[in-house]
Design goal:
- The structure holds two protein chains of two kinds.
- By secondary structure, chain A is of the alpha+beta class.
- Chain A has a single domain, classed as 3-Layer(aba) Sandwich (Chemotaxis protein chec).
- Chain A contains three helices and ten strands; from the N terminus they run H-E-E-E-E-E-H-H-E-E-E-E-E.
- Chain A starts with a helix and ends with a strand.
- Chain B is globular, with a radius of gyration of 15 Å.
- The longest helix of chain B is centred in the middle third of the chain and has 24 residues, at about 80-105.
- The chains are: A alpha+beta, B alpha+beta.
- At the A-B interface, strand 4, strand 5, helix 3, strand 7 and strand 8 of A face strand 3, strand 4, helix 3, strand 6 and strand 7 of B.
């Protein structure tokens, strides 16, 4: 399921990066992951509830996060402070909102939770029993990895 | 409102821990208005969507997590493997589900997400503009930390 649905999020992420930030973004191949894996420095986590349930995550290095948020907020961020955290989370919220809208057009009724931000590569995130797929999105500012682990209810 | 929501979760968590694990639970210190949290070894995250939205997460040490799952599955857990992870995720699911039922009785319709598990200490979890409340539930198997970051969703009435 995750494998079929991840392209909605790839599509929305690429579109938002291009439109909101004027960034050229290209998506790589879909990779299958085990349900538990470690993440990059900054991860925005958004849960999905409804006909499709699970979680979508956007993970990136600190450098990438800072450069993207600087572009988004029109000011240079050197530190990943609260404002920067909130900016990156909002971006994850927009990626997910647009992705879910595309899914809705395809007939899946799904809602998204508010974003939660996880920082620090020490922890690994497990989607407990859900198959999980990753698509890397390459931008001039570095890579954003989209992880999707969902099932259809 | 926040206190009522928090009480619902404390009550559900205590009931579930008592019935699933057969341990006595006492409610410890309550801290409010924290926005960043440094993770314990094991954290179960479950989001809520609906009239009330946000996230509930439950954290504990690896030792406590293994003791809890051991109690649930009636077997000694040595390694925190897939089975153990799924057990602890399920525990979070039952607590949140029960809270959801109580919230529905109070007139709040919510849906809960599937559990996501964070393993490894020292990362930070931020709920941004949603302030968090933390309650420590003490059991003989160790501390179970309940973190709640919820807000009432705006209704049309609030906007006009």
């Amino acid at each position: 399921m995750s494998k079929e649905l991840i392209h909605y999020f790839t599509q929305s992420t690429v579109a938002v990066l291009e439109m909101e930030l004027g960034l050229e973004a290209t998506s790589g191949d879909v990779v299958s992951l085990s349900s538990k894996c470690s993440m990059s420095d900054v991860t925005v986590l958004v849960s999905l509830v409804g006909e499709v349930q699970g979680v979508v995550m956007y993970s990136m290095g600190m450098d990438t996060a800072l450069r993207i948020v600087s572009e988004l907020m029109f000011e240079e961020f050197e530190e990943f402070d609260e404002l920067a955290q909130s900016g990156i989370s909002e971006m994850g919220n927009i990626f997910s909102g647009q992705g879910v809208q595309l899914m809705e057009e395809a007939g899946f009724q799904t809602k998204i939770s508010p974003p939660t931000l996880v920082q620090g590569p020490q922890a690994s995130i497990s989607t407990v029993g859900f198959g999980r797929y990753l698509v890397p999105i390459c931008t001039d500012y570095g890579e954003i990895q989209i992880h999707l682990a969902v099932r259809q209810d | 409102m926040q206190t009522e929501l928090l009480n619902v979760f404390i009550e559900s968590a205590s009931e579930v821990l008592e019935s699933e694990l057969g341990v006595a639970v006492s409610c410890g210190k309550v801290s409010t208005n924290v926005s960043t949290y440094i993770t314990d070894d094991v954290t179960v995250l479950i989001s809520l969507v609906g009239d009330v939205s946000g996230i509930a997460f439950y954290s504990m040490t690896l030792e406590t997590a293994k003791a809890f799952v051991g109690c649930m599955l009636f077997q000694e857990i040595e390694e925190f493997d897939d089975l153990a992870q799924s057990g602890i995720g399920e525990l979070g699911n039952v607590i949140t589900g029960q809270s959801g039922t109580k919230l529905a009785e109070m007139g709040f319709e919510i849906q809960i997400s599937v559990p996501t598990l964070l393993v490894g200490s020292g990362s930070s979890i931020s709920t941004l503009d949603i302030k968090r409340h933390i309650v420590i539930l003490e059991t003989e198997l160790g501390h179970f930390r309940l973190n709640l970051a919820l807000r009432e969703s705006a209704t049309v009435d609030d906007l006009f």
